[in-house]
Every structure is written in C-alpha cells, then in structure tokens.
Design brief:
Oligomer: single chain
Strand content: 15-25%
Strand order of the largest sheet: 1-2-3-4-5
Structural class: alpha+beta
Number of strands: 5
Number of helices: 11
Distance between the termini: 38 Å
Largest sheet: 5 strands, antiparallel
Length: 251
C-alpha cells in the first residue's frame, strides 16, 4: 500500500504549531461555535491524516463508497464518518474491518503511536496490540467462552421445532481454532443412517485477530468464502452464514 503525502502523521510539535496558526486566524464567532459544539480543533488536526489514509486507500483500490460497503457489509455512512473524521460516528469494529480490508494496520500502528489518546477513544489500541498478546498468551479462557456462547446461541436460533428434529437438525463442533456448523439428517435411502451435512466453517487466526469464513463446494472441500473479507467480528461471520445472501451455506 502506497501512502500519499497528505497522510503524513504530524508529531506533537507540528500539531501545536498548526493549531496556533489555525486559532489565530479563526474569528471569534467560529471559536464560539467550536465550544458550543464541543469540537476539539486539536483532534480535528490529528484526525486529518487518518481520514486521508482511509479515503486514499479506498480510491487507490478503485472502490466507491458503495463498493466498499458491499464488500465489507459496513453502512456507507459509517465509512464516510471515518473518511471525514466524525469521531462520534466512528465505530471501532468498522474501523478495524476497514483497516484489514485496505491493509492499513501498519500505518494505523504508526498513527496510534503518535496519537494514543485519540487512538484509545477510537478503540484502536486494543486491536493494534492484540497480535503480540495473542502470540504470548493465546486466546483467553474468557474469549473462548464468549465465542462458544455466540456460536451456541446462533445454532439454537437455526434449529427447527423440536418435533421436526428427528428429520433435520442443526449442530456445531469446535476443532482447534475453527468451529463447524452442520445439518443432521437421516440418509434419504437409508433412514437408519444419520449423516452430517457441512454448512459452514469459520477459523480464527490468532496472529491477526481475524475470522476467515469457508463454505463447501461441489468437490466436497472447504473453500474461502470470497464475498466476506476477513473480519475481526464473529457476529459479522454468523450474520453472513445466517443470511446466506449467495446461497452458499443452506442450499
């Protein structure tokens, strides 16, 4: 990823110098508006390079807001909030997903190092440092429990009424860093034989804190599910499996 010059990360001295120039040239009425609107002009200056990095990354990828929204399942107004620096409208999970989508993690790490307070407010410090924690400690017991709970609740929501479960049911199992969702059905020509029909597989990559989604194709092998980019959100993965917009999981 080539980062254009307008994404230069300003150090504290450069920020303060620019802030002094901006405030000196600003009329009193505008300063009053900033106070009433609870707008921190220093934050606005610091956010400029972050906004530009995400906007330029999207344009370099030849994606419109609509294209990016379709690929990431992030609402356009949330993407626009990142590109315009509307801090109140920026959702940490979407910022993380966009960073992964455009390959901006290294740049974001440099930005967060200089702008730690803002990075903390935007939820960036957690996902920018998780890689090291994971390599050292792995996934915590609490994380595993939370994942288990989310998958279990999702599967329960997909199960048919109890009186139909002898004909078709939905279940899951964990194996290593992956979980598998499958249907349970009697074989049509030999009802005494119960078979498992794969629905979806999701694998957690500890080093980058992301989920990868897979589906079964006609060759009976797992293949990456291309419509959904790698995402840090398990809920996004489960939502994609449940909605099945491309008919890949539930037939």
């Amino acid at each position: 990823m080539i980062i254009p010059k307008d994404t230069k990360i300003l150090d504290d001295e450069e920020v303060q110098r620019l802030l002094e120039i901006m405030m000196a040239a600003m009329p009193a009425s505008m300063k009053k508006m900033l106070v009433l609107g609870k707008i921190n002009p220093e934050d606005s200056i610091r956010m400029r390079s972050l906004n530009a990095a995400f906007r330029n990354a999207r344009e370099t990828a030849n994606e419109t807001l609509r294209d990016t929204s379709k690929k990431t399942r992030i609402p356009q107004y949330r993407i626009r909030a990142v590109e315009k620096g509307n801090i109140a409208e920026i959702q940490p999970k979407f910022l993380r997903q966009l960073s992964l989508h455009f390959g901006l993690d290294k740049w974001c790490s440099r930005w967060a190092t200089v702008n730690r307070k803002l990075a903390s407010e935007l939820g960036m410090l957690e996902w920018l440092t998780l890689g090291k924690k994971t390599k050292e400690k792995g996934v915590s017991a609490k994380d595993v429990s939370d994942i288990e709970k989310q998958v279990r609740e999702f599967v329960e929501s997909r199960r048919p009424p109890e009186q139909l479960r002898s004909k078709v049911d939905v279940a899951y199992r964990n194996k290593g860093q992956s979980f598998y969702i499958f249907e349970i059905r009697p074989r049509w020509d030999q009802p005494d034989i119960i078979q498992e029909i794969p629905v979806a597989k999701a694998t957690y990559v500890k080093s980058s804190q992301i989920w990868k989604l897979y589906w079964i194709r006609a060759d009976s092998k797992w293949h990456r599910y291309d419509p959904l980019p790698d995402t840090p959100s398990l809920q996004i993965v489960l939502h994609e499996i449940g909605g099945d917009p491309h008919g890949c999981f539930w037939g």
